């Protein structure tokens, strides 16, 4: 499993650092990750990134390219978290994420990047399509998603849980 993570990490880093990435190749890589990964978070990140990467193939719009770069960055962040060596006490619980970081992960947004309200709302609408109760999703999950959006739009109004 670690060899696969390392090869995915190298391929993602190469794609992310390329001046003009091959989005078709990125799509194939993320389809493989979505299909073969044993980690739920990594599978979800890859699945959420696939539509944007497919849209970026043969598309020169700046907004589409930027969205594809960001989605690739989110997947790379997850792969990095899974492949980085763990130091410290064995079997120690990982550090708890802040409410803002949890909200970013829930919406599929990169960590530690300044976001506009429009970007947050776009990510919310994209994620809400599959979680809406009318589309077969859970009402609780949909409410959690709306809370995540509110936390990101109004960060000072919420305390860490």
UniProtKB/TrEMBL annotation:
InterPro entries in the cross-refs: DnaJ_domain (IPR001623), J_dom_sf (IPR036869)
Cleavable signal peptide: none
Domain J residues, every copy: 102-161
Gene3D superfamilies: DnaJ domain (1.10.287.110)
CDD domains to which the protein is assigned, alphabetical: DnaJ
Residue ranges of coiled coil: none
SMART domains membership: DnaJ
Domain of life: Bacteria
Protein name, UniProt field: J domain-containing protein
Organism annotation: Bradyrhizobium vignae
